[in-house]
User: Fold these one by one.
Assistant:
Number 1:
Amino acid sequence: MESDLEQLRAHIRATGFNSPVANATISAYIRAHILEHPNKLFTTRAPPLDIILFAINNIFVGRVPPPIDSIPDLLDLLTSAEFYRKIALEKANEALKLHLKYKDTSPTRTRLTDEEEQQLRGHGERDENLRSIYLELYHQFATYHMYELWTCHPPRPADMIARFCEYYPETPWLHPHTEALAHRLFCHDLSPAERAECRQRGLDMCKFMTDSSEWAQKNYPGVLKSLVYQKPEFRAEMPCEVDQLRPSLDYYTNTVEAMVNELQDMFQSDPPSPTMNKRKGQQQVLTRG
C-alpha cells in the first residue's frame, strides 16, 4: 500500500487538478490501486492527506458553487484536513520543546537548525489565523447548504431538518452538545467559545427562515413559498453565495499540505494520523532520520 500511495502522490503532482481529464485520470488511479485493494491501513487510520485534498479539489472541478449534496462530504473532508493540521502542530511544538531542552544541556545531540526552529515557530504563530479560516469556511458552507435546502423547489423539509440538527447541535431546543448527538466530525473538536458561535449560527439561520417566509408572504401572498424563493428579486434581497470562499479554501488547504510535508521532510517520519492512539503518540519522540 505504501508503494501505491507514493506512486499516487507522484501521479497527483504530475497531473494536478487543472482539468476534468486530469481528475478523471487520478480518480481512476485511486480506484484501481487504492480502493480496490483495501487493507488494514484504511481501517485503522484516516486516509492520507493527499487523498483528502484531492477529494476536496475534485468536488469543485467544473462546479462553482459545488453541488449542494456534496457539501456534507466537503465539510467532513475539511475537518479531516484540520485534524492533520492540529496533529502536525502538536508534533512541531513537541520538537521545539525537545530542541530547547537539549540546546544547552546536550550540545552534542542533533538539534534543529536556526531555520528549522523558525519554521516550526511560524506554524504556531499561524495557528489562530488558520483555525479561524477553517471555522469560517465550515460555517459558510454549512449556511449555504441550509440556504439551498430551505429555498429549493420542490421543498426538501426532511433533509433541511436533518442537516440543521447536524450543523447546529447547540441550538436551545435541541439537547445539549454531546458526542452522541454531534454527528458531524466538526462537532467533536470545539472549544466552549466555538460551541457558542455554532449556537449563534444556528439562531441566525432560524432568523433567516423566519425573515424569508415573511418576505414571501408579504410580496407574493398565496404563492407557494418554494416558488417565490426562485424569483430573482428574492435572491437579490437575501443572497447566499460561496464563490468568494474558494481563494480562502485554497489558501487553507495549500498551507496545511505545505506544513505537513515540511514536517515529514524535516523528521522523515510517517504522516500524522487523526486516528492514531494518542497515548502512544505522546510517548514517541521526534527523531531525525
Number 2:
Amino acid sequence: MMFVFNGVIFLAGAAILAVGIWVAVDRVSLLGFLEHIEDAPPELAQLANVGYLLIGVGAFLTLVGFLGCCGAVKESKCMLLSFFTVVLIIFLVEVAAGVVSILTSFQVQNVLDEIEQKVARSIEDNYGSDESFTSVWNSTMNELKCCGYNNYTDFMNSQFVSTTSSYPVTCCTSSSGPCNEIAAKADVRLVCTVIKAMSNSISL
C-alpha cells in the first residue's frame, strides 16, 4: 500500500516536472497559444514564468516519491526515515504557512480598515472646501459611476453638504430632483467598489 502511495507521488512529480520543463523551454509556443484565446486576461501570460515553479515542485515530489518507493521495496530504515522526515517538514511548513497567512490577513485587514477611516475622514474634511480634492473625487466618481468610498454617508458632515444641503450628483442618478439625503439614501447606487476591491485584493 505504501509503495502504491509513493508511486503515485513519484509519477505525479514526474508529470509536473515534465510540464514545467516544457513550459520553461517552449515559452514562445505557449505565449503564441495564449494569444489566440479570446478575451484572455493579460495576467495569463505570466503562466510562462510558472514553469520554473513547476520544475521545483515536480523535482521535489519526484525525490520524495523515489525515497518512499525505495524505502518500501528495500525496507530500508534510512530511506523510510528520510521519507517521513520530508513529509513531516512539508506538514510543518504547511502549518506555519497557514498560521502566517491568518496573522497576515488580520494585519492587512486592520490596515485596510484604517485606510477606509482615513479616506472617509478626508472626504468629510476636504470635499467642498478643497477645490482640487473635490475635483479629483468628482472625476473619480463620474468615471467609476459610484458614490463616495463607502456610500453617501461619507459626505454627510462635509462642507459641501453643510453649504448646499445637497450631495454629489453621482449619488442620485435615479432621481431627477435635487440630490438631498432622502434621494441619496433611496438611490440604489454602487459605492466605489473598484477602489475598495483593489484594496481588498491585497488581503487575499
